[in-house]
């Protein structure tokens, strides 16, 4: 078999693989659509009602509701910020025990990884529902829910950043007889701080978005005002609250971007 025949055989094999892949993908799509009762006719027929609700009930927003929503907006920002600050500090400490390069107890790092994976993989909405039953409605539930998920996410991000640092500096300090704490402060922290700042600011953006969902189940902030407005059919208030959420999210993204440019 010459080179040309080998090439043509390889091309035919790739075409067959792609054909099988596309057929399987289409079959799974059809199966999933049938299982979820997805219907394009129903989708397009409902668009008119959706647009009617959007432009007649939701829009235009009511500026008169803005003063009552500003306090809720401040609550949303405060919950997200507190969860980010506390979550970053706690996660950084736990990450030191989780990363291979920094842990003083190698066997315990698997426990920390498993524990934080549990925190991370339970959705923030579930944490809010659990905490509402114990603490009742309010900003405390929202803050704690965001804090728990922030710790879970940041531990993983921080641990990966710690494992990517230059180990040569650690080995050099260890050879001079430096203690574990001295190695952390002299070699680890200078390399880790840019990642710490970057991931913490990114977590703040996530918290701002997640706080709306948490608030809708009793966690306070703008999410709670949106849920209350929906229950009371005060859709003009709902649209005003949604606009505030969008403004806060965009402002947070812009601000964190500027901070990253200056500090990292």
From TrEMBL:
One of its GO terms (molecular function) is ABC-type phosphonate transporter activity. Residues 73-256 form the ABC transmembrane type-1 domain. InterPro entries: MetI-like, MetI-like_sf, PhnE/PtxC. Keywords: Cell membrane, Membrane, Transmembrane, Transmembrane helix, Transport. GO terms for cellular component: plasma membrane. The chain crosses the membrane at residues 18-44, 72-98, 180-202, 208-226, 238-256. It is a multi-pass membrane protein. Belongs to the binding-protein-dependent transport system permease family. This is Phosphonate ABC transporter, permease protein PhnE. It comes from Paenibacillus montaniterrae. The gene is phnE2.
């Amino acid at each position: 078999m010459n080179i040309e025949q080998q090439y043509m055989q390889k091309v035919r094999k790739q075409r067959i693989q792609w054909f099988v892949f596309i057929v399987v993908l289409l079959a799974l799509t059809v199966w999933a659509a049938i299982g979820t009762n997805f219907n394009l006719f129903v989708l397009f027929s409902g668009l008119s009602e959706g647009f009617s609700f959007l432009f007649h009930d939701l829009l235009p927003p009511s500026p008169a509701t803005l003063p009552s929503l500003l306090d809720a907006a401040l609550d949303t920002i405060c919950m997200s910020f507190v969860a980010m600050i506390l979550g970053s500090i706690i996660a950084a400490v736990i990450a030191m025990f989780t990363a291979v390069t920094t842990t003083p107890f190698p066997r315990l790092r698997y426990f920390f990884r498993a524990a934080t994976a549990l925190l991370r993989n339970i959705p923030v909405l579930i944490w809010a529902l659990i905490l509402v039953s114990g603490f009742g409605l309010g900003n405390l539930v929202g803050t704690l829910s965001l804090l728990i998920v922030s710790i879970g996410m940041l531990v993983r991000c921080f641990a990966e950043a710690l494992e990517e640092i230059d180990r040569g500096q650690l080995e050099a300090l260890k050879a001079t007889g430096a203690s574990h704490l001295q190695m952390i402060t002299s070699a680890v922290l200078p390399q880790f701080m840019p990642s710490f700042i970057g991931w913490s600011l990114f977590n703040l953006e996530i918290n701002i978005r997640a706080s709306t969902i948490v608030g809708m189940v009793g966690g306070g902030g703008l999410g709670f005002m949106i849920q209350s407005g929906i229950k009371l059919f005060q859709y003009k208030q709902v649209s005003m609250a949604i606009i505030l959420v969008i403004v806060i999210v965009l402002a947070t993204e812009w601000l964190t971007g500027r901070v990253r440019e200056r500090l990292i």
